[in-house]
UniProtKB/TrEMBL annotation:
<dbReference type="GO" id="GO:0010291">
    <property type="term" value="F:beta-carotene 3-hydroxylase activity"/>
</dbReference>
<dbReference type="GO" id="GO:0016123">
    <property type="term" value="P:xanthophyll biosynthetic process"/>
</dbReference>
<dbReference type="GO" id="GO:0016119">
    <property type="term" value="P:carotene metabolic process"/>
</dbReference>
<keyword id="KW-0560">Oxidoreductase</keyword>
<keyword id="KW-0472">Membrane</keyword>
<feature type="domain" description="Fatty acid hydroxylase">
    <location>
        <begin position="13"/>
        <end position="140"/>
    </location>
</feature>
<dbReference type="GO" id="GO:0005506">
    <property type="term" value="F:iron ion binding"/>
</dbReference>
<keyword id="KW-0125">Carotenoid biosynthesis</keyword>
<keyword id="KW-0812">Transmembrane</keyword>
<dbReference type="InterPro" id="IPR045019">
    <property type="entry name" value="BETA-OHASE-like"/>
</dbReference>
<protein>
    <submittedName>
        <fullName>Beta-carotene 3-hydroxylase</fullName>
        <ecNumber>1.14.15.24</ecNumber>
    </submittedName>
</protein>
<feature type="transmembrane region" description="Helical">
    <location>
        <begin position="80"/>
        <end position="97"/>
    </location>
</feature>
<feature type="transmembrane region" description="Helical">
    <location>
        <begin position="6"/>
        <end position="26"/>
    </location>
</feature>
<keyword id="KW-1133">Transmembrane helix</keyword>
<comment type="similarity">
    <text>Belongs to the sterol desaturase family.</text>
</comment>
<dbReference type="InterPro" id="IPR006694">
    <property type="entry name" value="Fatty_acid_hydroxylase"/>
</dbReference>
<dbReference type="Pfam" id="PF04116">
    <property type="entry name" value="FA_hydroxylase"/>
</dbReference>
Amino acid sequence: MANTWLGFGAIAIAVFLVMEFVAWAAHKYIMHGDWGWGWHESHHEPHEELFEKNDLYAVVFAGFAIALFALGRFGGLPVVTAIATGITLYGLFYFIVHDGLVHQRWPFRHIPHKGYAKRLVQAHRLHHAVKGREGCVSFGFLYAPPVEKLSAELKASGRVRAEQLAERQPHGLN
Ligand SMILES: [Zn+2]
Ligand SMILES: [Zn+2]
């Protein structure tokens, strides 16, 4: 029995990691693509409102996870419940770190100054360093490439909004 639970835990963790790839692909090809940009654009523009149209993506992903939980529970498929758990954990992580730590949508006092957490925040700020949907870098989230690499990519694309580079303006990017 313990083995079974370990197995489900391993599946949930594996799905959590796979979700980074899913999120990267969805961000790059759907949200910055022709038919996904309509919702995602709101996340790349400064605004005063509490919600963004882009939040609808979170609603869609959550609906998908809830459907899987229901299928796992009522269909008697614990493997599906484990998959839904992994998806939900990734969503929670993204919500807390992306919306809280990076974008400060609620007063998140901690600002990381070293290590992986700092790199993750900088990498995502660099995603917001270009205006519009073209020429952006860093579509993933968990896997944060070094800032130097992303800066070089940005320079190569020549579309940097210099005033928004992470080093110069550490707060308040939307
Ligand atoms: Zn984006
Ligand atoms: Zn963002």
